[in-house]
Amino acid sequence: MDGTGDSRHGGDCSVGVQIRQTRILPDFLQSVNLKYVKLGYHYVISNLLALCLLPLAVVISVEASQTNPEDLRQIWIHLQYNLVSIIVCSAILVFGLTVYVMTRPRPIYLVDFSCYLPPDNLKVPVSRFMNHSTLTGDFDESSLEFQRKILERSGLGEDTYLPEAMHHVPPRISMAAAREEAEQVMFGALDKLFANTNVKPKDIGILVVNCSLFNPTPSLSAMIVNKYKLRGNIRSYNLGGMGCSAGVIAVDLAKDMLLVHRNTYAVVVSTENITQNWYFGNKKAMLIPNCLFRVGGSAVLLSNKSRDKRRSKYRLSHVVRTHRGADDKAFRCVYQEQDDTGRTGVSLSKELMAIAGETLKTNITTLGPLVLPISEQILFFMTLVVKKLFNGKVKPYIPDFKLAFEHFCIHAGGRAVIDELEKNLQLSPVHVEASRMTLHRFGNTSSSSIWYELAYIEAKGRMRRGNRVWQIAFGSGFKCNSAVWEALRNVKPSKDSPWEDCIDKYPVTLSY
User: Fold this and answer.
1) DSSP category for residue 368
2) Catalytic annotation, pick one of 333, 411, 480, 481
3) Relative to the CA of 385, which of 28, 147, 160, 281 has its CA 20 to 30 Å away?
4) For all residues of the chain together, what is the average pLDDT?
């Protein structure tokens, strides 16, 4: 999903006279930062169970310390005459533990991931983009000016990439060129993944590929099977038409498969194809994707093997998916169609951001109870009760998701998407830095953008053991999908990270 927008900030200054007064007690509102009061409340409530059990543990310890050898002897004699009870209780205990171990979901580990870095000759500065758009002769002056304005406020930098076919005048659009783009992106990401993990392609038991707008026959997943000579009984899936949130959907599918098929690896490949999906018309709503979408792709290695825990980067905690396709407006807000002249493109509705906001609200309502501390859930529930019973004008309490996550990977669909989530979730500039810098460096790479963002956080050295990451993406349909990961160690960037040659330049100051 993509979008653009403007944001304006203003401020005022005032001069006043301060009158000093002697107080018997200090002014706590000024001497104590309220955010620390809130953090303390969160700590007490979140550890309420442990605090209640502490006195019980103290009592048990005191009683145990007063036990003498004669008491222990009496307990042993009692147990000798109740052998049947001991055997029955032990059998029930062993049976219960066995059932628990056999039926509990196995943890899903993210061993490593890689992102495709195109060669420098595919870079497309804004000046070249506009020059090529003019030379094609397909766009009128109004459309060219519209694209120029979109690019100026989009948040994209000068180093994003377009496929080889789009660098020619006129563009060389063909099925062969589209296949070539797909192969370069998918194989480039997979080659790095296999090299960094030392996993043999033959060891892969599950393969999930997602690409919305390019679905040839044989499929993209079949192209990978053929390239790497994957085994004949591999379970392969090809997801199409599911938009920019399909990367999380692919992870969810791979997770479900790993819970069924034990002791194996799953590879998730996320990409989008631009070559055959460029719009050459003059309908404004269909020109925005031309300005924002760029070449990119990712490959993720997942495992359900216990021995992989030590070398894995993350453990999958939750996946929450929200689909509003039953609503007609939501269904059509991102829609592939032909314009009045018969040219095909993806049209973006003016109601897109409003629909995205409603879908996000539904998604976080489901996600909140899974990840938020008890303190936030109580505050949220109490606000709802007060609003319902006493005053319908009471503003609903917005949970502080910063207490649940240390890092946020918001789909880099466009500047407006990031702006709105930063505002509505009350995030700081640091929390959305990875999303803004990914948009600036690589543009909207569709479903793979959340992996470029995670790679940015790693490259900055910010990922610590126990940190939780929220990946959130929007896509056509309309969908909002979330994935939550927990870091298993202090994560260092993988070899050949897409940020390896430029991370020292970031973050950059953006001017819109």
Assistant:
1) H
2) 411
3) 28
4) 86
- List Cα–Cα distances, 237 to 127, 194, 257, 439, in angstroms: 40, 20, 11, 29
323 in active site:
yes
Residues contacting 193, CB < 8 A, separation 6+ = 112, 113, 114, 199, 267, 299, 300, 301
- d(C-alpha 181, C-alpha 175), whole Å: 10
pLDDT at position 93: 79
Residue 407 among the catalytic residues:
yes
Q: What is the pTM of this model?
A: 0.83
DSSP 393-413: TSPPP---GGGT-SEEEE--S
Spatial CA neighbour of 270 closest among 471, 418, 468: 471
Task: Determine how β-strand 204-210 pairs with β-strand 265-271.
Answer: parallel
3-state percent breakdown (helix, strand, coil) of the chain, nearest 5? 50, 15, 35
Asked whether residue 30 carries a pLDDT value surpassing 60, the answer given is: no
Q: Name the region of 231 (left: φ>0; alpha: ψ -120 to 50; beta: rest).
A: beta
On the question of a cis peptide bond just before residue 405, with omega within 30 degrees of 0, the verdict is: no
Which residue, 339, 342, 211, 213, is CA-closest to 286? 339
Joined together, the tokens standing for residue 325 give: 């396709």
Known active-site residue 440: yes
Q: Does the annotation count 167 as an active-site position?
A: no
- Catalytic residue, candidates 210, 273, 409, 440: 440
Catalytic residue among 211, 244, 291, 409: 244
Identify the CA nearest to 190 among candidates 229, 218, 161: 229
Q: What angle do CA 256, 261, 266 make, to 5 degrees?
A: 70
- Helix pair angle (34-46, 374-389), 10° resolution: 100
DSSP per-residue codes, 208-233: EEE-SS---SS-HHHHHHHHHT--TT
Q: Is residue 233 annotated as a catalytic residue, yes or no?
A: no
168 catalytic? Reply is no
- Of 241, 246, 270, 266, which Cα lies nearest the Cα of 256? 266
Which of 63-77, 169-183, 362-376 has maximum average pLDDT?
169-183
CA gap 267, 279 in Å, rounded: 32
Is pLDDT at 33 greater than 80 in this prediction? no
State the residue for tokens 């997602």. Answer: 210
- Please say if the pLDDT value at position 192 is more than 50: yes
Helices (runs of H) and strands (runs of E) counted in the chain: 17, 11
Catalytic residue among 282, 323, 480, 481: 323
Q: Which of 210, 444, 467, 481 is catalytic?
A: 444
